[in-house]
Design brief:
The chain is α/β, with parallel strands linked by helices. The protein is built from 16 helices and nine strands. The protein has a nine-stranded mixed sheet with strand order 4-3-5-2-6-1-7-8-9, with helices on both faces. About 40% of the residues are buried. The radius of gyration is 34 Å and the shape is globular.
Amino acid sequence: MGIAVSGTVAAHPLLAVLSETIAVARDARRGDLVGRLETLAGRIRDPRRRIVVAGLGNQGRSQFVNALLNLEICPVGDDTVTTVTAVLSHGRQARAELVLAGNEGGETTRAAVPIEQIGAVTARAPQAQGRPVLRLEIETPNRLLADGIVVVDTPGLGTHGGGGAGTVLGQAPAADAVLVLTDASTELTDPEMDFLRQVRELCPAVAVLLTKIDLYPHWRQVFEANEKHLRTAGIEVPMLPVSAVLRTHALRLQDEQLGRESGFGPVFQFLRDQVVARDQAAVQRTVALDIGSAAEHLALALGSELVALRDPERGAAAVRELQSAKSTAEQLHRRTAAWQQTLADGITDLAGDIDHDLRNRLRNIARAAEDWIDDHDPGRHWDSMDDWLTTTVGTAVGDNLLWTGTRTVRLAEQVATHFTELGAVDLPDVREKLEDNASRAGSCTLADLEPDLGFTHKVLVGVKGSYGGVVMVGLVGTLAGMALINPLSLGAGAILGGKAFRDDKQARLAKRRNDAKIAVRRYLDDVAFHTAKETKDRLHRIHRLLRDHFTAIADRTLRSLDESLRAAQQAASVESTRRTERITDLERRLHMVAELRRHSTALLTPAPPALPEGRTV
């Protein structure tokens, strides 16, 4: 059972058309068009598709990945917690490497890890030598991975050192599909619903997998309840029940019936329909638009020269039109500072707004945490506090990331308004630049509180407090002829001992609350510090992307007009003996360009729907 994701058969026609376009552009000496088209061709030749597997801790993510690939590659166990993102891809030989963050924002480095030791890799692996671990990259021979699938096994959401929702959401825009796992023991929780809402906005192909259906006989009731929760929240994603254990047994025993019961068939169908088919359609549209754009640029120069050769009077009019268009393009090029200023101001404003939004969210979380600490003994419920804080902060960072994506799209549209004189302008996909595998905000941990005192120490506190009462009242009693230790002195000792115990208890509770508030503030400060740095880096990448994209548009347009004008002007000086030969050559080239336009139109035209069997037009 496979996905058949290589897409080689479907890619051949696109590569053929692209090769023709590249040949025409190279013959016209348009290196700018050649470079753009060759980049697109490289994307088609390497059709890798990233499948991100996410979910809360202990939901069976690693076991699912093992069953999906039919490999024992990811560590599985009740006491085994994935804390490092693992990226699995195909390789001729099995090998693994840790990708480590560079010092002070420098280049990342790599450290080899023995393949038999990947199960013990943590964020503090000795191979890292104290540097932050960004991810673990694993290459292994595998049929599914060889088809172009790249599986990303992420740490559990909300687990200690797991990286939180922000790390997974940072990978979602560049992912082709996100599979969110939740086991069949309970219904979807609020943190899972928040995560689904966020990831659905970042990745169009999202599915919820209900795992461990072999362990829970009531999984169908949970399945129906989860579907109701998703409908109520307005989250339109498919839910698929699966069992990794049944899948593993089915592969080992070659049992087709067991394989169907495992539920992996619908998973592969989802990947075929929502990932492979959608990606092929997107690539086809991109190819069509780029071919159409290249054909327009090429036809402009060829057509202008042909008109000037055939009819000098019409050629003179075309030259005047080209001179006017070139003047407009030159003005736009000279006004580069205008749109770049809009871009720079937009990035600056965006950085400030995003930072303020994040800090405001974290301040609200801090207030809620301090109110809870004032009403409870944090020493008794610190683990619950840790889980709540990690989940809530992950949701806040995720919402901040979503807002970043929305604002960057608006900024790209705002910059594009400067290019309205050139007609329709395509926008870059800035959401892909939101990918951030180097997130360190999720590695922040909440400090532990000092444990409460034991029973022996509490007795000693009471005895110490009662000692003064016994002695004081006993001495007064000796003046009345009573013994040092008498009922009155014992009663006074008990009262003062109890008071000392209560005062000590209150003092230690106040100290724990104060320590808890300090720990929460320190944790939120660490999150804000790392997230702010990652946001700045992300915006710098987006800034460069938009700057290069719009600069290339202006340069291509100006170059096309300049070459068209020069060709039309030179046509007037062509000798009559060469005029016919040149016209024939131009007509041949324009015919090739027209064919490219026809291919572009055909690629953009959707295929008619298939008719049911037995029906004809």
